[in-house]
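Fold this complex.
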Amino acid sequence: MDEQDTVPERPGYMRIDGIQEPEDGSGCATTYAWLSIRDLQECHKLNPWKAQNLRAAKEVLCSPARIFQHIRPDERESGWCYSGVPQCLWDEHGHKAGMPANHVFTVYLNSGCVVFEWGPETVDREDPGSPIGARTGLGTEIGRFGRLAWTRNP
Amino acid sequence: MDQEPVMLDQILNKLLAEPRTAPAYPAGYYSADGDCVFIYNEGGAHVRDRVDGLLTVFRSPENGRIIGLQVKGVRGLDDVRRVEVKTLGTAPEGMRIDVVTLLLRSYKAESGASADESAREPERTRAYRDALGLFGCQTLDVELQGA
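Structure:
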C-alpha cells in the first residue's frame, strides 16, 4: 500500500488514517482504510447506534488484538477482519457507553480496504482477542477465517 | 498530504447535529463494498451473531431478540432481485430485495457448508426461522448503486 502522504482522495469515500498495516509483523506500520459516505449515511439513517460506533471501529483498526485475512474463503478476493476490545462503545447520541462483557469488537474490510461492517460479537472462549469461531493460533487452521495475519500476543 | 482528510469524528458529530427522521422499519440498504444487504427493524444497540457464512443477525444485548440482519453474497443472485428504475426526484436506480428468497437461498447454500457449521445446524435453522418470521413478508427497496 502507498505511503499515506501520497494517497489521493477518493470521491464518495472518506479516508480513515492511522490504522494498523495488516501484513506488518511488527505491528508498528500504519496505513489507511476507506469508508463509503453513502453507506455511512444509510447506516446512520437506519441504525444511528451503529454509525456512532464507527468511533469504536476506528479504535480497533488502529490498535487491534488480532487481524484475520479471508473473510469469505470461497471468494477470490480476500478481505480483513480486525478484532479487539475498544475502551468503550458509543450510544446513538454520541455518548460513551459500556462494552458488553464477553464480547470483542470486530471490523470488516474488503480487499480494497473499505470498511463495510463493524460491531461487538461474542468472544472466542479459547482466545479473548478473537470472535467466536475463529479458533486462533499461528500456523493452525482458522475456523471462519482463512488466516490469522497478525496477533498482538502470539 | 494532498488534502486534509475529513475526520471521522467530524462527520459523526455532523450527523448527530442534523435532524433525523426515523425510517419506516423494516428498512435496508445494499453495501456494494461488502456485497451485502443490511436490514434493520430498529435503530438501537446490538451485538453481531454470525449464523453461518452468509447470514449474521443483530441481536439486542438485553434480551437477544433480532433487530436486524446482514446477508452476504448478494451480487449475482438474480432471482432475489428485480431491478427497477426509480422515477421520482434524483434517486438512483433501485433494486427490490425479496427477503424470503434471499434468506432461503442463503439457508440452502450454507447447509452442510462445513463440519463446524453442521454442528450448529439446529441453532442455525432457528435463527433463519426467526429472521424469516421478522422480515420474511418484506420486499425492500434498496439502492442498486454498485451492485
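Residues 121-135 of chain B form the longest helix (15 residues).
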